[in-house]
Design goal:
- 2 copies of one chain form a homodimer.
- The first copy, chain A, has 11 helices and 12 strands.
- By secondary structure, chain A is of the alpha/beta class.
- The first copy, chain A, has a 6-stranded mixed sheet with strand order 7-8-9-10-12-11. In chain A, strands 2-1-3-4-6 form a 5-stranded parallel sheet.
- In chain A, α1 packs antiparallel against α4, α3 runs antiparallel to α4 and α4 runs antiparallel to α5.
- The termini of chain A are far apart.
- The interface between A and B is medium-sized, with 27 and 27 residues.
- β5 of chain A pairs antiparallel with β5 of chain B, so a sheet runs across the interface.
Chain lengths: 308, 308
Amino acid sequence: MKYIIGHISPDTDTICSALVYEDYLKQKNIEAKAYALGHLNNETKFVFKKFNVKEPEHIHEIPKNSEIILLDHNEETQSINNINDLDIVEIIDHHKVKLETDKPIRIHIEPLGSSCSIIAKKYFKSGREISPQNASLLLAGIISDTLHFRSPTTTDQDKELTEKLNKIAQIEDLEKFSLEMFNAKSDLGNIDTEELIKLDYKVFDFAEGQKFGIGVMETTDKEFGLKRKDEIVKKLKEIKEKDNLQGIYFMIIDILEEEGYTLCADEEDSKLFIKLFNTEDQNGVLFVDNVVSRKKQIMPIFQQYFNK
Amino acid sequence: MKYIIGHISPDTDTICSALVYEDYLKQKNIEAKAYALGHLNNETKFVFKKFNVKEPEHIHEIPKNSEIILLDHNEETQSINNINDLDIVEIIDHHKVKLETDKPIRIHIEPLGSSCSIIAKKYFKSGREISPQNASLLLAGIISDTLHFRSPTTTDQDKELTEKLNKIAQIEDLEKFSLEMFNAKSDLGNIDTEELIKLDYKVFDFAEGQKFGIGVMETTDKEFGLKRKDEIVKKLKEIKEKDNLQGIYFMIIDILEEEGYTLCADEEDSKLFIKLFNTEDQNGVLFVDNVVSRKKQIMPIFQQYFNK
């Protein structure tokens, strides 16, 4: 039995791609099961409720030497804790790569807008049948990761796949559906500050001893984050120290306006961000216009800086 | 224009997969050209002569910022010198992975017996047409890398693809063809000792400061290598020092008997090999039975040792 896992701080794309890939493998008579590495966010919960799908089980550790399939990530820092005791047999992803394996394994990485796009492509290419429920989950993953085509990570293929999937899913108004998803994602109730930061949080290992944490809050209600600025900054300082990070950022992304508001742990992190993104400190907030994608607009700039 | 390149010390699989992939991309209206990073070996030359195919141009440096496609390798140490100035846009390979990218790129890695198998699969899956000439080149790559199915890297898919390809290529006796290839590979004339070591030579970066060079000579005439033992060992010492390697090995693989004879630069390298492969020193030669594959039988043992 193979374990299919998405990344920690799971989002809609990682959960839906893993779950639908379980079905794809089942159709190939390969026994596999999808698990979530943590609680689903409110957007993902909304999607599962809307389409009447059972949420995948949570898992925190996988038995030693088990075979695992990584969906929507490939870096150790974003995966299950005991990954070094496990046998990675396959990777499907749409992110940059930082990877070392002992032996040749099956890897399919494509620079599409979502991992759900890659899974959808696999169905269409192989002619396997997609149920309306699975088509809906794949659509949700594409819409979530591309911010319904607002993100610069969007490709023509994502749009074509969305059209083909919706012939099966039959969602009447996709823009309305996407706004419902974004509002669900923005409805964070009385979320605890650390949970807020870690909602969509990744640690990147840019170079030896240069670990950076970058959390993103994609929202239609930026004030929810901005008004909690002081407690967020305090918590960022704590996480930075506890996890021995070189830097840590929390970016509030206004999905509809396509704007980013970044909070930093301290002066040092703030200085680096201002330098890299040519912005300024406005009362503890670093504003960047037209920046919505950590992957396409934030990460490459950090990566280039550290590769110099 | 994209540059398609195989690894340095090119072999039949790396050259044939790159060249045929040029045709595949052409059929997709993508402009690309295959190049060889060094001289073709005698086996590859035999194949090109037999099927009347023009050898790809050699190249040693590619203009800065050019787009490149890596065939049959993914590690920097096995690629073109100025790889850090180039833009890797795609990787097709069947080896273990050691890779870091700045951005998401297209990666297709599959644990098949050869890169030519992956290219063949792409044609059959997409329904694109393979010319008899290209089918012959793909067959040559599969047969060369799997030692005509003798290597433990061989998969059922390699055998199936060989059968499908030969319906197009129409090579009358594949076993006879493979022996012709192996004999051509073994016919090394008055080759210089360093060239002999570097015929199929790769440097692996096992860990910080733990670079190992491993050269392989697959042959039907092991005596050709064994009788030059003393000069080979002397040259191994020189390369080890010049390239600042932690260790260096030269393995003479008897294709037909499926046996390996390893030569080492010094006592230190010899000790490690004896420990890892549970063998003994017989007059400066370390014999291992049933070991023909660097990738499947040698590399994983080194890798595991250094990951401990």
